[in-house]
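Inputs:
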Amino acid sequence: MLIYEISSNGRSAKAQYRKTHSITDIPPNHLRNNPAGLPAVSELQVVRHFTNLSKKNFSIDGEFYPLGSCTMKYNPRGVHKAASIPGFLNRHPLAPEAQSQGFLSCLYELQEYLKDVTGMRLVSLTPMAGAQGEFAGVSMIRAYHEKNNESRRNEILIPVAAHGTNPATAVMCGYKVREIPVTSEGDVDLGELKSAVGPQTAGLMMTNPSTCGVFERQIKEIAAVVHEAGGLLYYDGANLNAILGKVKPGDMGFDVLHVNLHKTFATPHGGGGPGSGPVGVGSRLAPFVPTPIVGKRDEQGRDFYYWRGEEDIPDTIGNLSAFMGNAGILLRAYAYARLLGREGMHRVGEYATLNANYMARQLEAAGFKLAYPGRRATHEFIITLSREAKELGVSAMDFAKRLLDYGYHAPTTYFPLLVPECWLIEPTETESREEIDGFIEAMKKILEEANASPEMLTGAPFTMPVRRLDDVKAARELDLALAK
Amino acid sequence: MAEFPENVRYAKTHEWARLEDDGTVTIGISDHAQDALGDVVFVELPEEGDVLGAGDEAGVVESVKAASDIYAPIAGRVAAINNELEDSPEAVNDSPFGEGWFYKLTPENSDDMNSLLSAGDYQKICEEESH
Amino acid sequence: MPFVPHTNEDERIMLDAIGVKSIEDLFDEIPGDLRAGELQQTPTSISEMELLRLMNERARRDEVSLSFLGAGAYEHHIPGAVWDLVSRGEFLTAYTPYQAEASQGTLQLIYEFQTMITRLTGMDVANASVYDGASALAEAILMAVRANRKSKSKTVLCAGNVHPAYISACQAIVSAQDIEIELVDWDQVTGLLDSSKLPSGKDYAALVLPYPNFFGGLEDVNTLTNWAHAEGALLIGVVNPVALGLLIPPGDWGDNGADIVVGEGQPLGIPVSSGGPYLGFMCCKQSVVRQMPGRIIGRTVDLEGRQGFTLTLQAREQHIRRAKATSNICTNQGLLVTAATIYMSLMGDEGLLEVAKQSHRGLMTLLERVSGIQGLALRFSGPCFHEAVLKLPKPAGEVLADMAKKEGILGGFDLGRMDSNLGDCLLVNVTEVKTETDIDRFVSCLIAALEK
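Outputs:
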């Protein structure tokens, strides 16, 4: 039932008390002469409506959510509390520095921790999501080449298994995309890379571990090939959870990277966002970072935090948001980093990897096919259901829908594109062995069903608020807003 | 089983082209292509009067899971577009060589049709792609 | 160790199942010389108790007693129900609705948001939001250049009194695709655009028009929309959603209405929270919907004919279209959309109108009470909404610093920071949360600062 269907003219929540006055100074041609068309409901109706809507959602709080590449780890409540302190919520973005030392100190320290964890020289917290971080990173690469009179470099290399944002970002930055094949072992094809680089190469975008869920073992050679050709290396931080505290992207030869705070630093996903994608750079790209960033100086023996903007960083690629990015998310990431501490960071990578490898082995033992059986799983791994699809007529999507009936959110399906009928599975370090064992048991049962009564999968889900939805109708007969 | 009618020529990019009696060339996408796309939800067509070179992007055909560019198989000027597709994009799936046609070109040179693939050659390419 | 539940027993069982002796063995594919040592700059962990004490102390340091700062982020009252509901785990910790059947809560909510925002703006369709108002404007510019088939130019005309940070963000985002943003000067007396001074007869893909503008001023949207359309340009409106409770919606501007509308959704139930996370809303006419980036929710039916909601038009997005996507955007501001939708539901038309009227009334009261101050004047003569520019007899920066230091009052925004010719100008904003006593405190504090 839509909220408009419980609306009734004349009803309102009375959240705003009426005061008797009229507006006389705004000319009438500026005033609206028709009602806006928002719902007319009482406060209890609103509370009940949205409470009941929430119950139709799967969430980390409610269900195991092993979405590969999304890092669905527990979102700590203490962190949420810390970021929701009224002094932080009510601080205006343009408040003067003298009245912002509390907030600025948190951001400055977060910059320092991210530098430490990534091995980069300078960090800007402003990009508001991974994709914006990518945009900032590739823009900086572009600015670097322009500054060095190398604008002829118009091509970005991207492994064929990369996340869709990578090529989309490259094009948004005015580049052409050249795809590099991946070997059957999951590594970037070094031979193909060598023939692809040249004087037109601006850079390479990749992640490590890769989207295939395995560690890119030849990363140093890859970095050397690209650098020798005069290009720069961009690291997509989506899979940082696997190596947090274990390996620093800066040490692998990357010149620029972004971190997904909503993945690695446990900030809440909120039904699709907000995210936050801070960028880190080495010294080559430091002059170009997006502004503002937080600086620290000494003022009469005390630390004073201040904004560093265009005057201070004249070659900056500019600002990407109206203010300085998703401040509330940054505060959460800061709080999380304080709770983990350096010891905690190390253990994130360790236990994420333990959980993934355990899950991979158990699924293999249960009869599922790993895409890269000879490789260690990192924080995630891929299974392929192409045999089941061919022999039993049940696809990876059918398995995913049936998993919902068992109370688990399905892993990422059909990504990366190069493995047919695949699932990319990432348990994260916050899941217990029992939770994982429960998932394995459910998968065993579903496999039995696939063999004995495949319609249990092809018709799934049965126990959700809706059955499978007609997405062809949704795209053909666009109904994107309730007609008035 | 996909159909590969012999009265049309094919491009590697999965468009078909048919030379009509009045000298125009009707263009659409093959049965193999519509099958791979799945249910078509939207077609973006060129505009009448557009001048296209062989291989130029002519529009986009969109399904739920993909959005593929369509290309001009030979050079020419767009003479007509199939307005029915706006309300009935499913015609592309139901009748790819008939009611699901996309647009007609007045070709720069109708001999260019000979540079396109025969049904047999195109079918071979499709079989290779499936592996 | 927080959040990792493994006991020694668990570890042993799991390592045995994998067939290795220790967790370290699982990292054996990583070349040894890449292994990082101890993290040197990250401190050791603290408990939640210590964390909250630290954060409370830092937040307290930043408290001010009263703020009249607007400039793109507005302090409105947020009813208690909003964040109570948003903080429910099922909303807070849900993810992108990729498995639609398990996400009907979020999906229906976004559909309701799309409905509310299209009605508020008078447009046909809306997306599920983008990051913020500034990036929404950048996306709108990219969209207009793609969608305007009649225009061959990659130049967009933009009112010079759009929020300066929006303008610079757009330049940073669109310049890589060789799109130029040409600014139009505003009239020095009115603070508004002068339609007779616009560059006619040239080819522009779009005109960007703010409402209200950065100074709080109200542009002649009807004339300007018709001008743009007559010139073959699309009209992009940048609006304040609370203002639309009172003012004409962009769908009604001119003879044909705006083509694309964007704005900052923060005033709808989101605290000013240091500038983010906020939400950028985007709406457009039906004819250009396929050029709109971002996630879009559609209503459909399930196998049994029941109403359901799902992500639609995904073929345009990065995860499918990749290099040819409308944008690289992946995220939408789900959590903030939830807050805005609940806020709009609690307000209704009546409530939103009250917020707008009371905010504007507050500004009028403040302007009356400062009108007697020697040397102070209203800088611009045009009509405005809830925000206005005061010309002071001293540099605004000095006055503000004094007000903050003496009384902890943030008096507004120093326009000298964006334009050296406006160094004596103060952009002041009043909302419904300010009482007459608050306004009196502002006035006496301002007088004291001017007399210094």
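Remarks. The domain at 10-129 of chain B is CATH 2.40.50.100 (OB fold (Dihydrolipoamide Acetyltransferase, E2P)). The mean pLDDT of chain B is 91.
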